[in-house]
């Protein structure tokens, strides 16, 4: 796995939150797709969401 800076994110990169306990897939234009909680629908969310900014841990490329 290669670590990726936020400014170099590409669609398909994995983005991590909350001490690496939550992961999403970056889809471009500052957005990522994820399932917020067990049993909830997958949704698109912005990386600039204040909660996500606070809990962002990093990203990697596979």
TrEMBL record:
Q: One Pfam family name from the record?
A: NLPC_P60
Which InterPro entries is this protein grouped with? NLP_P60_dom, Papain-like_cys_pep_sf, Peptidase_C40
Domain NlpC/P60: from-to ranges: 1-62
Q: Which UniProt keywords apply?
A: Hydrolase, Protease, Thiol protease
In alphabetical order, the GO MF annotations are:
cysteine-type peptidase activity
Indicate whether Protease appears among the record's keywords.
yes
GO process annotations (BP): proteolysis
Instruction: Answer whether the UniProt record assigns the keyword Protease to this protein.
Output: yes
* Protein family: Belongs to the peptidase C40 family.
The record's section on PANTHER family has: MUREIN DD-ENDOPEPTIDASE MEPH-RELATED (PTHR47053)
Its protein name is NlpC/P60 domain-containing protein
Please tell me the species this chain comes from. Answer: marine sediment metagenome
Per the UniProt record, the lineage of the source organism begins with:
unclassified sequences, metagenomes, ecological metagenomes
